[in-house]
Amino acid sequence: MPRRNFFFFFLFFISNCQLQTANCFAQSNDTIPKYRSYHFNYDNDFFNATDYYYTQGIRWEFNFPFIKKIPITKLLFRLHKSNDELFGITLNQDCYTPLSIRHSAIYYDEHPFAGAIYLGFQRVSNDEEKKERLSSEIDIGGMGPCAVCEEEQKGIHKGLNNIQPLGWEFQNFERYCFELFI
How does DSSP classify residue 101? Predict the structure, then answer.
């Protein structure tokens, strides 16, 4: 299989799969279920034949009971009297481009070239009796060149023998980011 076709097949496979395993178990003296799971998500707008705004994203998610003991998880929201909870750590990268990647100029009122990379802590709290679920996540990371979105997009375009994106030299400067999702 030629290198280009293999690369396309690999991207297609990764973008359309979500690897997931889950184990639920309870010990005889423990009524709280313990969840263990792993998720991998890959998005790329290449498959829609577009290359603008949200252009690529990667998310790794690891859920294990011991994550509950990490102090920052105490800041996450939970349902009152919930005894069914999932705790996780996420690693994320999001990449953004303006409407056109064919111009090496700044366009005002347009989305800038930007990337974000961050570490997240999540808590999912369930109340089976009331049929309620509350999810919260704290993300801490950085925006700008530290997210390596320029190198990734250029590498993917080179591997697919596609046009090289222009304008990454105008991407947002590096800064810290903090997000809370509920």
Answer: S
Question: Around 61, how many Cα atoms within 13 Å sit in the side-chain half-sphere?
Answer: 23
Instruction: Measure the CA–CA gap between 64 and 156, rounded to whole angstroms.
Output: 33
Please state the rounded mean pLDDT for residues 166-175. Answer: 91
Q: Are 42 and 62 in contact (CB under 8 A)?
A: no
As a three-state string, the secondary structure of 109-125 is CCCCCEEEEEEEEEEEE
Structure token digits, residue 133: 């679920």
pTM of this structure: 0.75
| Residues 152, 95: Cα–Cα separation, whole Å | 9
CA Rg value for the chain: 20
Quick one: how many helices (H) and strands (E) in the chain? 2, 7
- Helix, strand, coil content of the chain in percent (nearest 5): 25, 40, 35
